Amino acid sequence: MIETFSLEDFSSQWRVVKGPNNVGNRFLFHTSNVDSIMFTGDLSATDQNGPTDSELIGNFIKDQVSLRYLPDNPANGYVNGENQDKTYEGILDRSKTPYSLRLVNKVDGSDSLVIVQLN
Question: What superkingdom heads the lineage (predicted)?
Answer without folding.
Answer: Bacteria
